[in-house]
Every structure is written in structure tokens, then in C-alpha cells.
Inverse folding.
């Protein structure tokens, strides 16, 4: 007969045994939560889909902004200075000048584009072949394209370099296209900030969605909660399955968001290749990366957990046996 | 084991369910609480299960004043008191096994110990073969016995039952009461609320009688009344 020792059994168990029973209950609850999700596949799918989309939007936008930032940072690394020379300089003078520029410690390489070369290039690219031949003389100047060394690629140093070359008598004009890069980067920083704000709002939405789902869940399992409390269940015990349930929702939403971002990137891959092909450059979209994926999944779990906390804190205490 | 000192309970509507009730149930005793419906039997049991708190007076269980228990101490107290409800309060979508095992899961009993103890408890009430059944597949009497198995499985020192035979025919009622007597014989203090005077006489146990929230004096109650 089980009644013989009148409840003294509980205190006789060692701390280790109690702890392993506690862990076993955690494990049990964890997988019960997963089963619970499978019990109502459609409702679960809809909740997970909403969470997934809400997470995928900012994650995808962040990936795009980061790609653009990476791309523009690459451009800055190859910031070049174009020295447009005065018209009518002989090839020899141009070569001499190129040599002296090349001798500067801040210069890694100098490419000479002679006036003739520039004209040929321009004719080929613009298609104004006939029109240009009407001009009689070549209106284009020779150009020295200066590639600064690594130490001189930073905007301030490159600026200094450009100024010193601009002072040379043979140089008509110096063009250093860093200004537009700076503007682009400022715009990208702004976009980045905007995406973060949207991400925070959508994260709040995820918390509320999970909270509401768990609230319904609590309502559905009212009888179970009441009986458990009557049998001596602590608040933690009653709370645990709902918290795990919320975390599962978050994780599933995170996985879905990851898949959505992958699909989105795959769809954009083709057009991006075309676009960069037009600029004759090599670039391919980078994805979330390992840390991004981990962040997305962990973020999903945390938001799901938080959402169920909200619901549990508000509604579980109100259910008392009568 | 159970002491009521001048306990009153007035519900929010102004209805006074108990009015200055005092009685004692000794350790290892089996005590019936009888009286017509509305006499305060259910309120008395709810106070013992800490579902309700008294408006006045003190309840002392196993040397502990229930008035001094804080909210977070309630679960641990409830594990010491097995409760059997008239409507049995089983979880309908869980198997008999899961229902009976619930107090062990709540109490953090190691998993490998659970099947054996559930088996022992179900054997006690003669339902070992219904382990896998759902409560709705059982008769009312069987459901009540599952409720009893669940109440005793964690081996509480006190067992309280609210009209445990309310929906049963006389023969089944007698069986259930005999089961309580057997549990009482192994040392559990048993408190049963019942309006079935005939059954209580047949069992020959001590009882107290309530009317309008008060104790009915022994000479008016008759039968096997043994005083407080």
C-alpha cells in the first residue's frame, strides 16, 4: 500500500536526486512544448509565419544595408586620384611627369592615359565616332591615374596628396571622388539606423504576438492549471511549459526568418550579378553569416520567451482553484 | 492533526458559511462531517485545502497555523493534503496513468520511480488494468477511484474528501468508504464530508454534524456521534 510512510519519502531523497528529477522535468516540458506545437499545425504555422516574417524583414534589410556598406568600403580602399593634365603636352613630358609622381612616397602606381588613348576609349564607349572625327583636333587631355599607397587611402591623407599634385604646373585639374562616397556612406548609415528602428518595432510586435498566443493557450489549459495548483504545483512549475512553448515559437519563427532571408538573397543574386557585371566589377551578396544566423535564432528564442513571460505574469496568477 | 478554533467564513455576498466552528481531528483518526447541503461542509474542506481563507478564527494542521502560510508556501502545504473532489477534477484529455502520476511529477519524484508508484496506487483502487484509458471511458465510480489514487499517491498524512460518494449507488459508496477506512488504518488522517447518514452509521465512524455553519450538539445529532 503506498500510504504507509505518510509523505516522509519526499525529504529522504538526496539533493542530487531531486535536482536530476528537476532537470528531467525541464527536459520533459521542453519536448512537451514541441509536441504541443504539432498538435494544432495550422494555428501554429500561422503564428510562426507571422513571427518569421516580422523577423525576416529587418534581418533581410540589415543584410542588404551591410552588403552596400561593405561594397562602398571596398571602393574607398581603391580611392584613386585623377590628374587631368594641361592640353598640348608632349608624350615625353607626360612620361616625365608620371615618373616624378611615381617617385612620391605616397604613390603606389601611376597609370598614364595619353590624350590619344583617351580619345580612342571615348570613341569606343560613347559611339560618337563620326562626331569626334569632325572636331579635327583631340579635345581630351592626358590623364595620370594615381593609386595611393595604403597609408594614403584615408580621406584626409588622400586629400593632402591630391593638393600637392594639384600644385604641379602641368596639372590642370585634380579629381578625387571621395565626396560622393562619403555621402553614400552617410545615407547607408541613415538606412542602417532606420532598419534598426523598424527592427525594434517588429521585435515588440513579435513579443505581443507570442504573448497573445500564450494567453489563449493558458485559457485553453485552465482546468489543468487549476488541478495542478490544487495538487501543490508551484508557480514556477505551472509557468514552465508556457515559457518553453513561447521559446519554441520564437525559435521556429527565427528558423523561418532565416529561410526567408536565404530565399530573398537567392532571388536577388541574379539581378545583382547583372548589375555588377555592368560596372565590370566582382561582387556577390553576402548572407547573414554564422553570427547573423545565431543572432536571429537566439533573438527569436528570447522574444518568444519574453512574450510568454508577459502573458504568464498577467494571467497565470489569476487562475486559482475554486 | 486538524484543529478548528472558532472559525468563521463569510463570503463576499454576505453569506456566512461557517460561524465560529471548533473541532479537532486527532492524528490517525477518521472523521466524517455531515449535514444538509449548505451547512458548510464544502467550505470547511476548502479552508483545509487553502482554496479559501477563513474570515475569523484559526486552523491548525499538523502543528501549523494555516493563517501564517504565505502564498509561496501554499504549494508545499497542499502536497501534505490529499484532496478528493465530488466532481473528481480529473484531466479529461490525459490517461488514467498521467492523471494519477501528476502529483509525483509536481513533487519532483524521479521518473523511474513513477510507473511503479502509479501501479501501486491504481492497484489499491482496483484499476490497474485501466492505466491507459481516458477518464471519459470510465464509469463514475471508476473515475472517483482514480481521483482517490491520485490523492494518495504522494502519501500525504492527511486525506480530505468532499462527498466522494455523491454520484454512486449504495454498494459502490460502501466500497469507496471501506477504501478510506483501509487508508486510515495505515495511519492517514481522513476527513470525509458526506450527507449520507445511513452509510456513516453502517461504517460506525465518528462524525460531526453541521447546520448553518455551526456544530449540531451531539444529543440532537444522534447516532455514533463522539463529541469534539
Amino acid at each position: 500500500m503506498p500510504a504507509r510512510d505518510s509523505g516522509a519519502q519526499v525529504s529522504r531523497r538526496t539533493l542530487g536526486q531531486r535536482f536530476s528529477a528537476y532537470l528531467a522535468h525541464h527536459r520533459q516540458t521542453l519536448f512537451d512544448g514541441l509536441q504541443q506545437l504539432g498538435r494544432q499545425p495550422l494555428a501554429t504555422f500561422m503564428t510562426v509565419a507571422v513571427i518569421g516574417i516580422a523577423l525576416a524583414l529587418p534581418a533581410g534589410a540589415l543584410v542588404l544595408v551591410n552588403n552596400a556598406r561593405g561594397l562602398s568600403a571596398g571602393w574607398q580602399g581603391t580611392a584613386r586620384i585623377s590628374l587631368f593634365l594641361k592640353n598640348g603636352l608632349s608624350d615625353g613630358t607626360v612620361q616625365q611627369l608620371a615618373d616624378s609622381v611615381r617617385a612620391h612616397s605616397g604613390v603606389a602606381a601611376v597609370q598614364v592615359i595619353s590624350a590619344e588613348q583617351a580619345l580612342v576609349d571615348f570613341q569606343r564607349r560613347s559611339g560618337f565616332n563620326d562626331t569626334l572625327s569632325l572636331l579635327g583636333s583631340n579635345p581630351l587631355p592626358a590623364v595620370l591615374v594615381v593609386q595611393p599607397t595604403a597609408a594614403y587611402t584615408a580621406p584626409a591623407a588622400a586629400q593632402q596628396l591630391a593638393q600637392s599634385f594639384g600644385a604641379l604646373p602641368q596639372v590642370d585639374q585634380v579629381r578625387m571622388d571621395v565626396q560622393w562616397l562619403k555621402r553614400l556612406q552617410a545615407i547607408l548609415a541613415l538606412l542602417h539606423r532606420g532598419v534598426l528602428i523598424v527592427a525594434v518595432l517588429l521585435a515588440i510586435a513579435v513579443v505581443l504576438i507570442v504573448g497573445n498566443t500564450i494567453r489563449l493557450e493558458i485559457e485553453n489549459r485552465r482546468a489543468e492549471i487549476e488541478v495542478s495548483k490544487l495538487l501543490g504545483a508551484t508557480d514556477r512549475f505551472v509557468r514552465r511549459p508556457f515559457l518553453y512553448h513561447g521559446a519554441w515559437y520564437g525559435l521556429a519563427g527565427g528558423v523561418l526568418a532565416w529561410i526567408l532571408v536565404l530565399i530573398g538573397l537567392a532571388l536577388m543574386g541574379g539581378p545583382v550579378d547583372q548589375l555588377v557585371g555592368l560596372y565590370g566589377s566582382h561582387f556577390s551578396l553576402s548572407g547573414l553569416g554564422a553570427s547573423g544566423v545565431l543572432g536571429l535564432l537566439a533573438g527569436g528564442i528570447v522574444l518568444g520567451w519574453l512574450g510568454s513571460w508577459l502573458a504568464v505574469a498577467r494571467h497565470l496568477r489569476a487562475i486559482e482553484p475554486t | 492533526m486538524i484543529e478548528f478554533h472558532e472559525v468563521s467564513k463569510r463570503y463576499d455576498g454576505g453569506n456566512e458559511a461557517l460561524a465560529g466552528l471548533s473541532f479537532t481531528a486527532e492524528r490517525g483518526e477518521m472523521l466524517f462531517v455531515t449535514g444538509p447541503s449548505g451547512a458548510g461542509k464544502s467550505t470547511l474542506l476548502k479552508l483545509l485545502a487553502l482554496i479559501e481563507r477563513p474570515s475569523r478564527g484559526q486552523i491548525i494542521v499538523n502543528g501549523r497555523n494555516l493563517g501564517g502560510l504565505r502564498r509561496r508556501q501554499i504549494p508545499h502545504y497542499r502536497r501534505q493534503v490529499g484532496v478528493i473532489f465530488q466532481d473528481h477534477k480529473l484531466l479529461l484529455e490525459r490517461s488514467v496513468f498521467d492523471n494519477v502520476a501528476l502529483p509525483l511529477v509536481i513533487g519532483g519524484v524521479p521518473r523511474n520511480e513513477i510507473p511503479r508508484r502509479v501501479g501501486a496506487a491504481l492497484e489499491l483502487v482496483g484499476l490497474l488494468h485501466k492505466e491507459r484509458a481516458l477518464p471519459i471511458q470510465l464509469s463514475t465510480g471508476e473515475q472517483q477511484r482514480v481521483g482517490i489514487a491520485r490523492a494518495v499517491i504522494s502519501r500525504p498524512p492527511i486525506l480530505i474528501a468532499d462527498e466522494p460518494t455523491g454520484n454512486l449507488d449504495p454498494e459502490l459508496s460502501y466500497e469507496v468508504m471501506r477504501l478510506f477506512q483501509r487508508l486510515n488504518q495505515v495511519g492517514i488522517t481522513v476527513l470525509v464530508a458526506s450527507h449520507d447518514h445511513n452509510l456513516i452509521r453502517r461504517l460506525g465512524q465518528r462524525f460531526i454534524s453541521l447546520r448553518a455553519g455551526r456544530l449540531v450538539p451531539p444529543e440532537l445529532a444522534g447516532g455514533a456521534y463522539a463529541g469534539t
Notes: Chain A touches chain B at residues 1-10, 13, 17-18, 20-22, 24-25, 28, 223-224, 226-235, 237, 320-322 (CB under 8 Å). The CA atoms of residues 182 and 295 of chain A lie 29 Å apart. The two ends of chain A are 31 Å apart (CA to CA).
